[in-house]
Design brief:
0% strand, mainly alpha, 2 domains
Amino acid sequence: MADKKNDEKEQAKGEPKADAKKAAAKKPAVKKTPAKQAAEEKPQKEPKVEEKPPKEEFEALLDEEAKAAAENEPDGAPATEKEEELSEEEFRRLMEERLETVTVADIVLTMMNQLASVGYMKMGLPETVNLKHRDFAQARLAIDTLEAMIKGADEKIPIELLQPFKGTLANMQMNFVQLMRGEN
């Protein structure tokens, strides 16, 4: 596609202006929706994000949401660079607002999910991907900790949120026993 644009530029330089206008007239003008404009603009803005020092995942998510909100002007016009940049105070305010909505239950459920993921990885499952990470002592710690968290959260976190973790725990325990039998 870049070659096509370069060819058109070279042709436009060597041709009279009328021919260049004809070449430009061949492309039908397509009106872009604000969503398409935003999608096309994002690749141009990514290098700016890479230049900044790495942030915690949560902070980076807030930063992205704030920039997206600044770009979505009511009239559909793209935001200026000044509007895209968040001041440190605005960023701090957004972060505090987000933290006010996070509950301990949200954090506990996230930790349980991470423990289950790491537990499977430390069991070396699936073997095609994680066999190199097998460490039964670490897997046992993940399983035991997940079990303790489920017991501690019982009746404090709605059952519909805990039930999937109870199933995951049972599956992890069964896999662990089978793997230990196979090792001996």
